[in-house]
Structures are given as structure tokens and as C-alpha cells.
Amino acid sequence: MSEPVEAAPRVDQPLIPPFLPRMIHRLALPIVLVWLGIVFITNTVAPQLEVVAKTHSVSMSPTDAASFQSMMKVGATFKEFNSDNSAMILLEGDKPLGAEAHRYYDEIVRRVEQDKKHVQHVQDFWSDPLTAAGSQSHDQKAAYVQVYLAGNMGGGLANESALAVRKIVDSVPAPPGIKAYVTGAGPLFADQSHAGEKGVAVVTLITFVVIIVMLLVVYRSIITVAVMLGMVFIELAAARGVVATLGNYGVMGLSTFANNMLVLMAIAAGTDYAIFVVGRYHEARGLGETREQAFYTMFHSTAHVVLGSGLTIAGAMYCLSFCRLPYFQSLGVPCAVGMLVAVLAALTLAPAMLTVASFFKLMDPKRTLQTRGWRRMGTAVVRWPAPVLAVTIAVALVGLLALPGYKTDYDNRHFLPADTPANVGYAAADRHFDQARLNPELLMIETDHDLRNPADFIVLDKVAKAVFHIPGIGRVQTITRPLGTPLDHSTLGFQMGAQAAGRLQTQHYQEEQANNLLKQADELRKTMATLHEQMQVTQDLSNTTHETTRLTKETVQITERLRDDIANFDDFLRPIRSYFYWEKHCYDIPVCWALRSVFNALDGIDQVAENIVNLSANLDKLDRIQPKLVALIPPQIESQQRNLDTIMSNYAITQGLNDQAKAQADNATAQGDAFDKAKNDDTFYLPPEAFKSPDFARGLKNFISPDGRAVRLIISHEGDPASPEGIRHIEPIKQAVHEAIKGTPWEGAKVYLGGTAATYKDMHDGSNIDLLIAGIAAATLIFIIMLVITRSVVAAFVIVGTVLLSLGASFGLSVLLWQYLLGLKLHWMVLAMAVILLLAVGSDYNLLLISRFKEEIHAGLKTGTIRAMAGSGSVVTSAGLVFAATMATFMFSPLLVMAQVGTTIALGLLFDTLIVRSFMTPSLATLLGRWFWWPQHVRPRPASTMLRPYGPRRAVRELILADVDEHPPGGVVQPR
């Protein structure tokens, strides 16, 4: 290739190169060696970036969010956990889970509880008969246990804890037909980090393949492409090494997203800057400049653009550190530091490597730069700026009109491969449980008194009922409804039935009492019959007594006569009688003793007579009493008859009451059964004796805090809680709780709400605020940098304005692609990340174009525009396409969110490169004319004083117009 003829110096090009490019040109080789040394040192003193990102990963939990603080308060109040990291261990069987599954489950729980380093609390409902049904599926084939892990989600300890639990579960031999899965929010985050780590290498490899192919197409030189790849490799290695070193020593935190974004941005930006450097160098060489002159021309034309672009990207990324959400905040410092390293390398290493390669004549262009198409395009733009601008706005409207239909998705499950362990577990859970069961909300109400009493439980069930009746809420569990439905027998209807049932239990005794009345009546009848017999006997006895009295009186008279006769006989025989008493041996003489005995018997007749007289007197008294005794019996019979009548009457009443009570009890029992079957929660009441039940006291521990002053409720949604619909339930839940406790003893209680939807609501609100903070900060920073570089307020506004328009259009195109064509909603992080990144990278190409405008402004505004477009068109387009292709390689990432971010940025770069930079910005500059450069003073046409050194004004103007058509743009006007 012949040596190009040296060209005359341009009017705006300094004759003496500045200090910095001269030093870089002279010390090119040492600079390359220094950068190689930086790469070697940073990659030696610290592990690789992926390893550091894994061990020093920051938590993704927003610690100042209400949901996070609520979860921490719940854990502290119940003395269970101090992190938001939880997992679900799910058991699934081919058949309903039986005793063998329970033993397997118990062993898993036992081993998990032993790991105190990674496990903080195990909420075991399935082992308790009171709550077992609440954690088991309706088909009895699945059950789960919730485990609270150490470390906040996204952090290194949290990921380690999820892995540890998974290893424990895998270590327990499973019975035939039963599988165990570890899933939930914590393991899902861990799988996301793992997938992101594996995806970086794959995406990086594909990116370099794409870049190599595109650079070969553009430059048609393997050596040129190899040198450019060397620049990119060293910049990437240096950026990775510096960030890994700082992260390893705790200067900054890292995340999966930061790791992925840093690598791709360093590659894309490094390739862009290499294209800027090599492209401008080739352009200068094509215009006939020497290698050294081309180097200085390149540095003069690109250094401020690279610096401005790099500072713009780094500054915009650093603005993410102002965000409150760790998702965005974690991107700020690592990406900013990495970009600063890449910019510094692009300003020093890239020119140095270009100098070294040029020394060996390796970087000369292999073909002439084709500018005719770009020149014609520029001519059309400056000739019809208004129609061109209208067409570009119409194209932008394609994307802008898709924005109103934008819908987002908060469920990370949808953005990870289906074969990740957590998603496999979720899929197993979906086969048996509703979608929200494993992602509930946790509501805690803290009062100033002990809640373990019937009155406060009425308020508690009122709160649970109010929350349950919110549209979209599918289940509320607490101590008054541990299975999601009201406790059996806990309604007033059943309590009334229970009272009737209590009476029914005494019905047997009441019937026995009635039977006893019948027995008593029977005995009374026997007594009455006996009384009748007694009255008859007494009457006979009275008659007999009366007759006996009469006969006794006659006997007295006979006895008195007999006594008198015996007395006469005794007086007559008294002398003979004396002999018998005087005879000493009378006892021995039988006749004597016999006669003596006769006389003794005659003496006893007096006593007989006297006793008969007394007997007669007593019989007279008995004869008078007996009629009275007979008269007493008939009243007794009448009294007993009345008693019998009363007993029979009581029996009839008691039997009637028993029959009525039995009928009422049957109705009341049916009423209680009906209330239980209907799961009616309108009249909740739990009697005081229920609190003395050991089973109920055991259940209290799951829902009531140890001091009894706080209660928690587990709320499940009907649909996906990680969705806009689920998020919209959070405020109604809080409002329902507030209204439910108003005017009750709980008024003024503190309410805490955490969980999946609550967390994503905070993220939704936080992302909107963060988007405003970071967006305004980035836009302001970009405007200031553009203002400093262009020294034009209007130009800076045009750059920022077109970038904002490009941002809206490109995001709309992404919505059109993902939501309407592919049927996948965009992840909630995509909007904020795409906005910040597009604000940063979208201004690069406009900056390069406007810098070329500024370089060519001496030829007049329209001519300068044509020359700038012709000179930078291929370079900027190549850089934009390479950057877009690099971002598009995120499509091969296992993280769908990164694929969405990458495609959104790629669409934005394509729109910015092909529409904004090629048509919109030049047409705006043409329409604004000299006002585009305000407050600088520029002339629409070349000034005569500026052209006098080159010849008469008319001749020079003709030469310029001819030069536009006949010579490549950017050429130097030769003095005549």
C-alpha cells in the first residue's frame, strides 16, 4: 500500500499536539505493560469476579422497607427469626401420605433443626393434629413445612443456607413413591444467583463470537480485529480484576445482576471505544495523514467523546447507588468503577496499542471508507429537515403507543429456567396447592395487653373475617381459624346448640327421675292399700277390744265372788291349815306338802282378783282409744291419695318437659351442625373453658406471641401474590384491619404486614421513586457533561431530549416484542435498569455526532452537518450495532430478566443509532440552525475572513460546494 500524501493541517487542528497524546504516543509500550501488570495483579490478589460475587453477594432485601421491617418485628416478637429468608420443604407422594411419609418428614425436620448455623426456626404444622390439615393438600398427597433461614435473601449467607438445607433434605433416604423438594423465596434467590453465575461465561463467549464476526465484516482484517479484541480483553480483565479486588476486600458489595451487567457493559463499551479509536484513525489515514498525524487526529477527535461517554455511563450507573432498593443500588458502584477503569483504558491503553500496532504497520485501513451513502443521507436531511423529523417521530410513535399497555411481572419464578430446583419444587406444589399457598402474607397485630381471652378473640376473628372478605384473598389462618376456616363449634349458633346438647346429656337423668315418680306412685298405691287393710284390722281390733272389755268386767265380778267363797273356805279350814305350816317335816310327807300347796294356791286368788280389776281398767281405756285410732286412718288414706295425684301430675309435667326438651335439643343440635358445616363466621365466640384445653394451648404458640400481646395471621391470595393484582391487595388489607379494630379494645394497636405481595409492593413503590431519583440524577449529570463538552445549552438539551424520546420508544418496542408478540410480561426491574442504561449509553452516539458537527462547523451549518454525518456515519453505526448485539447476547442468559434488559437496551441502541443519530438529531440541528449552538456564536455560512487565506470568497465557496460532491467528507480544503 502506497504511503498517503501528507495533508495540510486543518483550521481547527492544533499544530503542536497536546501533552497527553504525545506522552501516550511516546510511552505506548510501557503503558501496555502497565495495564498488563494491573490485570495480572488484580487477578492474582483476589479470586475471579464470579467467586467474589458469590461469597460477597449483598442482600437484595430493602432493609428500610415497611414489609422487611414488619418481618423482622414478627420474628423478634415471636422469638423465631431475624431475617427475611425462608424456604419451603415440600413432600409429594404418588399416593396419600401415610405413616411412612410422616416418619420421613419427622427425620427431615429433626436434621434441619440441628443445623443452627443456617436454620433459625422451623414452623412445623404438619406434626400437630390441630394444624396438620392446614399444611397438607386436599388430596392428601402433599405436605410442607416452612423453614426460616439465616441471612437476608440474596446475600452470601442466605444462598449458603438454602444450599445447606437442600443438602440435608437430599441426605435423608426417601421412601418409595415420595419425593422432597426445597423451594420458596430463599432457594429461588439462591438458584437465581447460581444461574447468573453460570450464565456469565456463556453470554461472554457468545458476545465475543458476535463481536468478532461483526468486526471482521466491518474491517475485513484479522489483524485489526485481533488488536481491537486485545484492547477489549485487557479492558475487561482490568475492570473485572479491579472490581473483584475491591469487592473481595469489602470496599463494595456485589450481586448477580451487577456481575452480569458489568461484564457485558465493559465488553460493549470497550468495543465501542475501540471502534471510535480505530475508525477515526482509519478515516484520518484515508485522508492522507501520516500514522503519527492520524494518531493525533484520532486522539483529538475521540478523546473527549470517549471521556464524555465513559463519564456519562459511569455517572449514570453511579446514580443507581442513590436508589433505596438493593437491586439497583448494588449495580451502582461496581458498574461505575468498572466503567471508569474501561474509560481510563480506552484513553490510554487503546491509543497505546494502536501506536504499537501502527509501528509495525498493522493498523492501516484495508479498504477505502465508503461515505457516498451517508453523504446523500445528510444532504436529504439538511434539505428536508421538517419532513425527516416528522417521519422519525412517527417511527418513535410505534414504540410510544405501546407504552400505555405495559404490564409488569414480579414473580421471579417466571424469569428462571423451569428446571431450576426451586421452580421444580414450585411446580410440584402447584399440582396440589393453590398458587399462593407457598407465598403468603404475614400480618401481625401488637397490642398493650394479653389477648388470650374470649373478648379479644372475638376482635381477632373480626379482623380475620374482614381480611378474608377482601376480594382476591383466598385464605386467612390464625388461632381462631387455623385451617383457614372458623374453628368447629366456635359460633354462637353452635354454642346455643351446645347448651341444648348439654341438656340432652341430662335427659337420661330426667327420664330416670320421671320413672322414679312412677315407682313412687306405685309404692304409694301399695301404702294406701295397706292403710285400707290397716283401717279394717284396726276397726276389728277396736270391736274386739270393746267386747273384751265387756267380758273382763264380767270376769271381775265372777272373780270377786270366787274370792269371797274361797275366803269362807279358808276361814273354815284355818286350824287344819296351820298344822301344815307348823309341821317341820311337811316337805318330806307327800300328802302334807300337797295340801299345803293347795292352801298356798288359795292365797294367790287375791292377787288374780286384784290384777283382773286392773286389767279391766286398762281395757276400758283401750276401748276408748281404739275408735280414735280408727278415725285417724281415713285422713291418712285421703292424704296419700292426694300425694298420689300430685306425683302423677308431676310425672305428666316432667314427661312433657322431657319430650319438649328432647325435641328442642334435636333442633339445636341440627342448628349447631348447620353452623359448623356452613363455616359461618358471623357470630364467633369461644368460651373461657376452651383456653384451658391442652390442645388449644399448643395451638396458641403458633399464632400468639409468648407474652400474649401480639397475634399473627397468615394470609393467602387467590391468585399470584407476585403480580400487580396481588400487590393491589396490600392497602385494602391494611385498611380492613384498621376498620376492624376501630372502636374495639385493639384500637391504637400496631399493625405489621410482610410477605410476598407486601415486599413487591414496597419494591414497586421504591422502584418508582428510585427511577425518579436515578433518572433525574442521571439526566442532570448527562446534561452537565454534554454541556461541558459541546459548550451549548441547546445542543445538550437536544442530546438529552432525543435520548429520552429514544428511551420511551425503545421501551415501547420492548413491550411490543415481549408482551404482545412473545406473551411474556416484562420483569419489574427492566424499566428502571433500561432507563438508566439507555440514558447513559444513548447519549454516546449523539455526542460523537455533535462533536463532529463542531469540528466541521467552519464549513457552514448545513455543509458541516453533511460532512459530520458522512465522516462519522459508518463508525457510529458500527459501534451502535456492536453495542446492541452485545446487549442482545443477554438473550442467551438463563436469567430471563437479563434477556429482557439486554433486548430492551439493544432495541434502544438500534433506535438511537439508526433513527435518532442518523435522522432526528441532524434534522433538529438543521431546523434550529445557529440556535442549536447557543450561547455560542456561529455563522450559518463560512465567514469571508476565515476563507481569505484560501482565495476569493466566491471561488472558495464554489470549491467547497464541489468538494461536498467530489471529495470525501472531512477532507481539508487546500489553499489555492
UniProtKB/TrEMBL annotation:
Domain Membrane transport protein MMPL: 59-388, 618-944
Presence of the UniProt keyword Transmembrane in the record: yes
GO cellular-component term (any): plasma membrane
TM ranges: 27-46, 199-219, 226-249, 261-281, 302-327, 339-360, 381-403, 771-789, 796-820, 826-848, 869-892, 898-920
Topological category with respect to the lipid bilayer: Multi-pass membrane protein
UniProt-listed InterPro entries: MMPL_dom, MmpL_fam, Mycobact_MmpL
Superkingdom of the organism of origin: Bacteria
Localisation: Cell membrane
Gene3D superfamilies, alphabetized: Multidrug efflux transporter AcrB transmembrane domain
Coiled coil: 514-541
Keywords: Cell membrane, Coiled coil, Membrane, Transmembrane, Transmembrane helix
SUPFAM superfamilies in the cross-refs: Multidrug efflux transporter AcrB transmembrane domain (SSF82866)
Family, as annotated: Belongs to the resistance-nodulation-cell division (RND) (TC 2.A.6) family. MmpL subfamily.
PANTHER family referenced in this protein's UniProt entry, alphabetically: MEMBRANE PROTEIN MJ1562-RELATED, MEMBRANE PROTEIN YDGH-RELATED
Name the UniProt record assigns to this protein: MMPL family RND transporter
Species lineage: Bacteria, Bacillati, Actinomycetota, Actinomycetes, Mycobacteriales
